[in-house]
UniProtKB/TrEMBL annotation:
It comes from Thioclava arctica. It comes from the Bacteria. Residues 41-265 form the tRNA methyltransferase TRMD/TRM10-type domain. It is found in: Cytoplasm. Keywords: Cytoplasm, Methyltransferase, S-adenosyl-L-methionine, Transferase, tRNA processing. The gene is trmD. It catalyses: guanosine(37) in tRNA + S-adenosyl-L-methionine = N(1)-methylguanosine(37) in tRNA + S-adenosyl-L-homocysteine + H(+). SUPFAM superfamilies: alpha/beta knot. GO terms for biological process: methylation. The keyword Transferase applies. Homodimer. Residues 1-31 are annotated as: Disordered. Its main location: cytoplasm. This is tRNA (guanine-N(1)-)-methyltransferase.
Amino acid sequence: MTDTPPPMGRKSHGRLSISANRQPRSLMDEPPRIKGAWTAKIVTLFPDAFPGTLGLSLLGKARELGLWALETIDLRPFGIGKHHNVDDTPAGGGAGMVLRADVVGAALAQARIGTPQDRALWPVVYLSPRGAPLTQAMAQRFAQAEGMTLLCGRFEGVDERVLEQFGIEEVSIGDFVLTGGEVAAQVLIDATVRLIPGVLGNADSAVEESHSNGLLEHPQYTKPAEWEGRAIPEVLMSGHHGKIEKWRHEMSQALTRARRPDLWAQYLQKQGKTDAGEA
Ligand code: SAH
């Protein structure tokens, strides 16, 4: 029998590197990674949920190119006893189960290996409905780090002590309750990775879109020029860039004012104006 060489680009060589993982057999399925590429380490009971939507389209392609990387750390092998139990009943009684401090702690300790201790360089986040609401500014902060660790909860959540012990930041993706943190982690990673230079084909699209300047985006149109009796606004067909810019900015402002009074108020404050328009 002859040894078949590994598929191109899947081996650790040159500027590509692969870091240690509890499940070496999965290394062969993992894309290569550029040394120092932004990395998400995800502690989860459901590693199969990843990459999920993060494996598609631009983000998936960028990951295949090694521009960012994803590592899952399965909570189950850290479980206690023959059945690898990861959860138990809440102290003080009540419904549901809570992820154990010792189990989650061991998984987080594993995730910490080889990562900077400075939270600015390597944020550690627990996805949680109690957390600070995820914003574009937060995604920008995460994108500037070297990578981050994300803890996905299940059941009633995780033992509070582990959050304190590891200096974990709680982040929410909105005022509703999900069954688990996996979908929320994908939301956070999507919002973050698309801000990493080189990931989006067109860098300008991340500069001009909703929330990047405190305003919602203007309406977009494409072909056909007329559809179901509806024409594209004339100014967009004029070829006059100045007028187009002005129209888009006005539409952005009108939309933000109508739909998101909270963002509009912040925007005006930044411009040093009140809603009456005085400077
Ligand atoms: N008992 C908890 C909710 C647990 S929901 C509470 O009332 O606060 C189970 C898990 O889903 C959580 O541990 C968290 O990881 C995830 N989750 C649920 N809603 C979320 C949200 N809005 N944002 C981020 N993560 C969420």
